[in-house]
Structure formats: structure tokens, C-alpha cells
């Protein structure tokens, strides 16, 4: 079957670093996506990894290991506005996205 | 640049009433289009997707239907709403496979409450 696992909730402190993990088992692989979703709003695209390694975009970085079926999203210098849910999604062999349930990140001052 | 619109933003409907939600995309042609539902505190559930005019694939059997009358227009409908249809409905678009990544871009969503 197809499965994506990520923690339900994480808490971190303003100014700190947090790593949100995602493991997946899917039929086919056409890239791994991270989205940010603030409460009551639509998801917005953060990052895309199709090759192994680290992709950096400002305070956000995303890592992929295809052999391990593993990715993480790294958020540095946390700000209160980073409080949101972070969704991991994998493109399958039919070019559809398989979605994780999301990780709710709570930032404390 | 591409933009995606959804309306209405919020909707309160009685059980048994019909539903029509509309989504339009600007700035791209022949996009793949998607309808998702998100229950409170839950993940995204794919309802329908379309690769072209009149081509609709259903992922979950239910009392909802979708139509794509024009290249950049996607409509979600129901003849009779159920209480369980309440949720946050999201429309998304992506490039046709081979013309870019499969990144999906979401509209602002419609929050539907069925009473």
C-alpha cells in the first residue's frame, strides 16, 4: 500500500531550529514536496526534492534519501509566523500526490 | 504568472440542498485540476482530478460530482448535501506531466458547513 508518516505535532522555541521528518512507502516516486498550511488557509508550496541531498531556500531546507524513503524539513531561526501545519507529499507513478496528515508546529516565545 | 480562484469563500447550506463550487485558473493552459476536501484537523483527501476538458477521474465514491466544461474551469457539485460533506474544499492545479514538475498550487478554498 501507499503510506506517508510524519509526526502529528511538534513544539519549538522562537529563534531555535526544528526538523520535521517524513517517511514514505509509495508505488513509484516522482518527487517529494513540502507545503506549509496556516490555520484556516490553503497549503502553500515550500520545496521539492527529486534527487538525494539537501535543498536550501533561505531559512528552510529540505533533505531527501530515496533509498531510505525519508525526508526532512529543517526550519532555522524560527519565527512566530512559522506556527503552521507542514504537509509532506510524494508524487506517485501516476503523477498524483500522496499526502501525509501533516505536522502541526507550535512555536513558543 | 498563474493564479487560481475559488468561490464562494464560505458557504452554509442545509442538509439536502444542492451545491456548486467553482474554480478557475489563469495564466496557464491545459492544466491538471484537482478537488480536495480537508476535514477539521485532518489531511487532504483527493476527490476528483482532471487532465482535460470533460475528463474526470473520481477517487472516492460519494454524492459529489465534478465537471470541467472549459480548459481552466473546474466545478464541484452535489444534488443533495449530507452533514458529512462539511469541510474545507480546495481546488488545485499543476502542469501537465512532462511540462514541469508535479507541484500543485492551491486556490484559497471554500469552507462549507452543512447544517
Q: Which SSEs are present, and which pair or pack?
A:
The complex is a heterodimer of chains A (109) and B (115).
Chain A: E1 3-5, E2 9-13, E3 18-25, E4 32-37, E5 44-49, E6 53-57, E7 60-65, E8 70-75, E9 84-91, E10 97-99, E11 103-108
Parallel strand pairs in A: 2-11
Antiparallel strand pairs in A: 1-3, 3-8, 4-5, 4-9, 6-7, 7-8, 9-10, 9-11
Chain B: E1 3-7, E2 10-13, E3 19-26, E4 32-38, E5 44-52, E6 55-58, E7 64-70, E8 73-78, E9 87-94, E10 105-106, E11 110-114
Parallel strand pairs in B: 2-11
Antiparallel strand pairs in B: 1-3, 3-8, 4-5, 4-9, 5-6, 7-8, 9-10, 9-11
Give a written overview of the molecule.
The complex is a heterodimer of chains A (109) and B (115). Chain A is an all-beta fold and 109 residues long. Helix content of chain A is 0%, strand content 57%. Chain A is built from no helices and 11 strands. In chain A, strands 2, 4, 5, 9, 10 and 11 form a 6-stranded mixed β-sheet that branches. Chain A has a 5-stranded antiparallel β-sheet with strand order 1-3-8-7-6, with no helix packed on it. In chain A, strand 7 (60-65) and strand 8 (70-75) form a beta hairpin. In chain B, strand 7 and strand 8 form a beta hairpin. By secondary structure, chain B is mainly β. Chain B has strands at residues 3-7, 10-13, 19-26, 32-38, 44-52, 55-58, 64-70, 73-78, 87-94, 105-106, 110-114. Chain B has no helices and 11 strands. Chain B is globular. Chains A and B meet through strand 5 of A and strand 5 and strand 10 of B.
Give a concise summary.
Chain A is mainly β and 109 residues long. In chain A, 0% of the residues lie in helices and 57% in strands. The model of chain B has no long low-confidence stretch (mean pLDDT 92).
Amino acid at each position: 500500500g501507499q503510506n506517508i508518516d510524519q509526526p502529528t505535532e511538534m513544539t519549538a522555541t522562537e529563534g531555535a531550529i526544528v526538523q520535521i521528518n517524513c517517511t514514505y512507502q509509495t508505488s513509484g516516486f516522482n518527487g517529494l514536496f513540502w507545503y506549509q498550511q496556516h490555520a484556516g488557509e490553503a497549503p502553500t508550496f515550500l520545496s521539492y526534492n527529486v534527487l538525494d541531498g539537501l535543498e536550501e531556500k533561505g531559512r528552510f531546507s529540505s533533505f531527501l534519501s530515496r533509498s531510505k524513503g525519508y525526508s526532512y524539513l529543517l526550519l532555522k531561526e524560527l519565527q512566530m509566523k512559522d506556527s503552521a501545519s507542514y504537509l509532506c507529499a510524494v508524487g506517485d507513478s501516476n503523477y498524483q500526490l500522496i499526502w501525509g496528515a501533516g505536522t502541526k508546529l507550535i512555536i513558543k516565545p | 504568472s498563474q493564479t487560481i480562484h475559488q468561490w464562494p469563500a464560505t458557504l452554509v447550506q442545509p442538509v439536502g440542498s444542492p451545491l456548486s463550487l467553482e474554480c478557475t485558473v489563469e495564466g496557464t493552459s491545459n492544466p491538471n485540476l484537482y478537488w480536495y476536501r480537508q476535514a477539521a484537523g485532518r489531511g487532504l483527501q483527493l476527490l476528483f482530478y482532471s487532465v482535460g476538458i470533460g475528463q474526470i477521474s473520481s477517487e472516492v465514491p460519494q454524492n459529489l460530482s465534478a465537471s470541467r466544461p472549459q480548459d481552466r474551469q473546474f466545478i464541484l457539485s452535489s444534488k443533495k448535501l449530507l452533514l458529512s460533506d462539511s469541510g474545507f474544499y480546495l481546488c488545485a492545479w499543476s502542469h501537465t506531466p512532462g511540462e514541469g514538475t508535479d507541484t500543485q498550487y492551491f486556490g484559497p478554498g471554500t469552507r462549507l458547513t452543512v447544517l
